[in-house]
Amino acid sequence: MSHPQDRGALLPSTGPTPGAPFPTAPPPSGSSPAGRLQPPRHAAKASRGTTRTDANLARQTAAMAGLAAGVVHCAATPSHWEEWILAGVFFTAATAFQVVWGVLQFLFESAVLRVAGLVANLGLLAVWAVSRVGGMPFGPGAGVPEPAGPADLIVGALEAVAVVGLLWSLLPRERHGVLTPVGYRTVVGLALLTFGATAVPGVSAALEHSHAHGTGEGGGHDHHDMHEPTDPATTGGSEAPAEDGKKTQQPEPSGDGHSHAPGEEHD
């Protein structure tokens, strides 16, 4: 007769065998052999596609336009330092902001950068419009409208493009238009070439303006001579400039239609 202890000893064991490895569950699908989860391929493609949206394209286009405007402002800065020190400070600050902001805005997607660029470019456009329509309210040429030269028009157009691009990138929307990689790179390259070609004549015109101020030619501003030429008809034709800088007296007509030199009497 067997005892209960003997029957329990004869039952098969359901536990792990001593010394055998503990069984593990198979790794989930999509994971790496090391056990780290990897995103599916379609999710990785979708994340890359979100950087090629129309909003990002407008943001980078605005950055390139602002950078080109800053380059033209840099060329125009020396002449404004000569005109008025505050004008030079303003142009230096505008140049530094547009160049630094343009580089950062092109490389990084930031709502703060977009808002800052929008406010700054709108402010620069407002100052430009006031100075050309009614003149600045203070400064050496207060109340006198400044002429709009080629460099001014080019900078204004570039800043307007930057404003439009930033507004488009900030518009709230449910879905974004996505471009193909080739299409996105093509548009960015064409925009870069266009803004670069636009900035070249602006820089040239700004440098010519600076050279005109340096040589005293006026550079688009009205300058009047302090000494105006004397009209012989209004002075009776009595004086005329001589080669040595001294004035000589001209013969005056007499009543009989003949001219007599000074000191000569008529018979």
Give a short synopsis of this structure.
Helices cover 55% and strands 4% of the residues.
Break the fold down into its secondary structure elements and pairings.
Blueprint: H1 4-10, H2 41-49, H3 54-83, H4 85-107, H5 111-133, H6 150-170, H7 181-215, E1 239-241, E2 247-249, E3 252-253, E4 259-260
Antiparallel strand pairs: 1-2, 3-4
Region (Disordered): 1-53, 210-267
Biased composition (Basic and acidic residues): 219-230, 243-267
Keywords: Membrane, Transmembrane, Transmembrane helix
Q: Taking Cα atoms only, what radius of gyration do you get, to the nearest Å?
A: 40 Å
The major pleated sheet works out as:
2 strands, antiparallel
Structural class assignment: mainly alpha
Uncertain stretches of 5 or more adjacent residues: 42-47, 217-248
User: Could you give the order of the helices and strands?
Assistant: HHHHHHHEEEE
- Per DSSP, the total helix count is 7
Instruction: State the end-to-end CA separation.
Output: 184 Å
Outline, from the CA principal axes? elongated
Query: How many distinct beta strands?
Result: 4
Q: On the 0-100 scale, what is the average pLDDT? A: 76
- Strand fraction equals under 5%
Percentage of residues in helical conformation: 55-70%
Largest sheet: spatial strand order: 1-2
Biased composition (Basic and acidic residues): 219-230, 243-267
Biased composition (Pro residues): 18-30
Transmembrane segments: 84-104, 111-131, 151-170, 182-203
Keywords: Membrane, Transmembrane, Transmembrane helix
